[in-house]
Amino acid sequence: MTVTHEVFNQPAPLVDVNLFETNRPLQAALAFNAPGLDTSALRDLGRLVGSGEYQAHARLANVFTPQLKTHSRFGHRIDQVEFHPSYHALMTAAVGAGLHGSAFAPDEQASGTAHLRRAAGFMLFTELEPSMLCPISMTYAVTPALQDNAAIYRDWAPQLTSRRYDPTLTLWRDKPGVTMGMGMTEKQGGSDVRANTTRAEADGSDAWGQRFKVTGHKWFFSAPMCDAFLILAQTASGLSCLFLPRVLPDGSVNAILIQRLKDKLGNKANASSEVEFHGASAWLVGEEGRGVPQILAMGTMTRLDCALGTSGLMRQALSIALNHTAQRKAFGKLLIDQPLMKNVLADLALESEAATALALRLARAFDRPDDPHEAVMARLLTPVAKFWICKRGSHFAQEAMECLGGNGYVEEGGEGIMARIYREMPLNSIWEGAGNIMALDLLRAIRKADAAAALAQELAPAKGMHAALDHLAARLPLRVEEMATEMEARRLAQDVALAVQAALLAQTAPAAVFHAFCDSRLGGHWGHSFGSLSSGTEVDAIIDRAMPR
Which terminus of the chain has fewer CB atoms gathered within 10 Å of its CB, N or C? Predict the structure, then answer.
């Protein structure tokens, strides 16, 4: 065969790299939030999620997507979803790393850093494969909510906190570990869950408390192969939170009919579905008629994961861009040595480090619920981090993809990961409340707590370190006290996020990173796109800190 050309100037993929050991911003944020934290398990996880073996599992789980089997070959209704073996390999690894309900195991809780360590692990795993983390995240969020039904929690807690994954459809007590999902939204309501029409009729009581028969539908029913779900349904007292297992205590399969799987933009390895309930059995969790507050307690934790997940995707996209530009030549020199490319990469590195700092700061607050300041910051920063980090994600991914040119736009090969990241980014911004919902939630948080004082305390360590930050920090508490109108809520969420990010970078990042962030995001020395840092920025120092090797 005639050889037409030699392949050269194509970068080697970023593979078999320990994603924890090469992530200096993540290590710095952990050291700040939990000095002396044992990170040995995170190092092990970093090695696993950076390995070629598990990168192959991630690719296969997205290529061979979930398949719905509504009936058996004999015509019996079975309502099961089949996954590629690589999906189960990823789930086994995520559960084994304790990224689901394990944070609520008694020994984990006693450490005082369970949520922070789990948050760092969740970010690392997101760099490998984010979509199958949906049931992992929901199991994490649901576990504490179940405590409002003591009998169910007593029975299910050992499996919810177990580090063993078992995908079989069988009774919970016969499984070493279980996962949980949720079903809130319906066709007619979306985020307006009070418009739900699904009905739950009283059906007596048993060892798990009040039992109901549920009839209706869910438009988004995430991860339908989970072992149980929390759903919202209308009871005689109003919208209530119910526990809906797939297999009932008598061993029979519950009346949950999967109508179809969603054909989504991204999130391909995860099965999202539409379902109908035909007299399905469910049990009350919390107070009847108080389903929205009950389910929102769970939503708060999944919103944390949205911020963590987007931060992880940012880091992954940045690492791929840095790896590519450090090897690819154009116009006589490496891309990473081109001044404009340096500007873009440094700008992306600032955004990524700031997202990491804010997301892990929020996770720390979840570890300290009895600390009054931390409780206010958890309420304040949850919608702020979810809004701002996730809102920046899609723009970030597009710019990182552009660093690779056409190679970033294709689905195949190592560089095809970038296309997967780009398709995944919008999800975290939409799921668990899009931008407007988060901005309104921030206003509610301000009304319920002394947010101005808490914010002033949070920003105080950085006072006097940068004029632009001082200017913003001086005005923010007053704006919070005056409680901005709905029309101004998004701008307030943005400014709170930027101020807290800057204050955190002042305490965790090198001076080059902190000053460049403040100069650009707060001082006005920045354009409307990435890569518009001022000429005096120490781009080489910023890029060097972010390098993934």
Answer: N
